[in-house]
Amino acid sequence: MGKPTGFLEFTRELPSKRPVEERINDYREFVDLFPADKLNQQAARCMDCGVPFCHHGCPLGNIIPEFNDAVYRKSWEKRMKY
Q1: How far, rounded to the nearest angstrom, does the alpha carbon of residue 6 sit from its chain's CA centroid?
Q2: pLDDT by residue (tens digit) across 15-54?
Q3: Domain span holding position 71
């Protein structure tokens, strides 16, 4: 479930985006990646709700609370579906 108090301890953060002036020159990703420690911290915020609406948000069909828990425990590669 992530960290039981993670939602209270860590505020929601979104990754930064590359400047528009830079993005218009290529087709690379425009959202920067989180460093591993920040990714782990954000995964700790998952509350494992009784009826999570996030289940419908993954285009790969991953079960989001389980995936967040795997990221929090640093074993996310084992949980991915392809």
Answers
A1: 14
A2: 999 999 999 999 999 999 888 889 888 888 887 677 777 7
A3: 6-78
